[in-house]
Amino acid sequence: MTQTTLTVNGQTRTLEVEPRRLLADIIRTEFDVSGVHIGCAHGVCGCCTVHIDGIPRLSCLTFAVQCDGKEINTVESLGGFDATHVLQQAFKSEHGLQCGYCTPGFLMTLAPYVEKKVANGEMPSDEEIREAISGNICRCTGYHGIVAAVRKAISNQLEGQQA
Amino acid sequence: MRPAAFEYHRAASIEEALSLLAEFGEDGRPIAGGQSLVPMMNLRLARPEHLVDINSLELDKIERTGDTLSLGALVRHERYFNEPLIAEHFPAFLDAAHWIGHPTIRRHGSLGGSISHADPSAELPCVCVLHDATIVARSVNGERRIPASEFFISAYVTALEPGEMVVAVELPIPQRKQHGAFIEIAERMGDFAVIGIGAVLELDGDTVLDARIACAGAELTPVRAASAEQFLKGRQLTEEVAQEAGQLFAQSVDPVNDYRSSAEYRRHLIVQLTSRTLMRAMKSKA
Ligand SMILES: Cc1cc2nc3c(=O)[nH]c(=O)nc-3n(C[C@H](O)[C@H](O)[C@H](O)COP(=O)(O)OP(=O)(O)OC[C@H]3O[C@@H](n4cnc5c(N)ncnc54)[C@H](O)[C@@H]3O)c2cc1C
Ligand code: FES
Ligand code: FES
Fold first, then answer.
1. Are B212 and B226 in contact (CB under 8 A)?
2. Regarding the domain delimited by A79-162, which CATH topology (the fold level of the hierarchy) does it fall under?
3. Considering its fold, how many domains does chain B have in total?
4. Is the ipTM of this structure higher than 0.85?
5. Rounded mean pLDDT of chain B?
6. Class in CATH terms, A2-74
7. In a domain, B78, yes or no
């Protein structure tokens, strides 16, 4: 057991953690935060993407003990239970989800990406957007709605800046 | 699946990491980005008893000393995109980095991890062989400098001894301007390559002064194309000549036959991708 202090969505706790426990499992079982989904547990689906100190990372390829003192955010921290974040709203209007299993991973992968594009005032091509989501698998949508949602989230904010 | 139990140690210095690795020998392993090791542990293909976390070590420098560019073992794959020294001197290296996995994986995966993992279809081992890199390894017994051509021994097997750790990779900076490219074919974007080809050219107009070609995914380790490289020297590079070089390369390798592709298809890819990569390298001149 290793003493580990984690802050998940602003809630800080110190736990005795077995080193072999994955960050994804600790978030789900110890913090009761279920927005972290585990699709494959070996890095290929992207469902478990969270932010560690603001940077997207696969929580199935991270041991909780490695995150001592770190700040972790999950999809719950984006727009709360009403999903008010621009990207979440765009996923809703552009049919970026069906069953929703993959959605938290997509959102956590894409939120900093969208933010950066907006900050740089640039609209990526569809090809670039597809590259950005290449580590996330969705079995339902065929990705078109997701690409459209990214475009919409960026263009809405760029237009908002001009106005 | 979930990993077997292990003990976790975070090393605060290279010396501490080396002494822990020396103590654990075969039972210990460094963990860098964890982007290959943790999948293996989750699938129980790897069951180290001790993990030595090296992420706090200062091994992420990219430095030029004289005619050598030294890349620290913890340089993450995405760094190459913003590194002028790589763009200027090692265009094939930069090109190759684009093909590695996905953004989240490139942000965490490290050079030392990639070459120590030694996946036969990985890009970075291939470009290390392409550029005649030297792998700098350390243990409590001191430093060893291993040419890339001797470092990769088989699939997932390297010349590293238990207790030894990669600290850096050194690339010789070319004397003259080089043009390079890397192209691969994978099932989907970001998947491991079925075949990947890297090429570096020194040109006088369209005439090849020097050429190097290496292939990932064909055999159990990256392979160089000695006969094709020799053939290209002094020739004007045209589509036909590039195809011929590809043919020579394909004849000189013995491709694996596995669930991803037949040996025959791999051979076909070597011909086509060698030719495309050479032409891309030449066009990058403009
Ligand atoms: C979905 C997915 C797709 C991927 N696609 C690709 C791809 O297309 N091409 C590709 O090349 N890679 C790919 N990868 C792997 C990725 O590039 C890894 O980052 C890389 O192979 C290992 O780097 P790491 O730092 O994560 O190493 P780790 O996973 O931490 O370690 C890998 C191995 O190297 C050892 N090790 C680590 N650092 C050192 C060191 N300094 N000295 C000695 N031994 C060390 C470890 O003990 C372990 O055995 C992919 C991974 C995933 C999950
Ligand atoms: S569960 Fe982590 S990538 Fe699939
Ligand atoms: S919405 Fe069902 S997997 Fe993506």
1. no
2. DNA polymerase; domain 1 (1.10.150)
3. 3
4. yes
5. 96
6. alpha beta
7. yes
Judge contact between A20 and B6, C-beta under 8 A: yes
Q: How far is the CA of A62 from the centre of ligand 2 (A)?
A: 10
Length of chain B (residues): 286
Determine whether the interchain pair B8/A25 forms a contact, defined as Cβ–Cβ distance below 8 Å.
no
Question: A46-83: per-residue pLDDT in tens?
Answer: 999 999 999 999 999 999 999 999 999 999 999 988 99
Beta bridge partners of B179: B201
> Hey, which of A47, A57, A133 would you mutate to test ligand 2's pocket, going by the most ligand atoms within 8 Å of its Cβ?
A47
Chain centroid, CA A21 distance in Å: 20
Which chain A residues have a beta carbon less than 8 Å from that of B5?
Answer: 18-20
pLDDT, residue B191, reads 85
Dist CA A71 CA A52 (whole Å): 6
Q: Are residues B274 and B258 in the same domain?
A: yes
- Determine the 3-state secondary structure of B279 from DSSP: helix
* Nearest alpha-carbon partner for A149 in A61, A62, A89, A76: A89
Smallest Cα distance from B108 to chain A, Å: 8
Ligand found nearest the CA of B158: 1
Domain locations along chain A? 2-74, 79-162
List, chain by chain if needed, residues with CB within 6 Å of any ligand 2 atom.
Answer: A 38-41, 43-48, 58, 60
Domain extent at residue B166: 62-172
Q: What is the pTM of this model?
A: 0.96
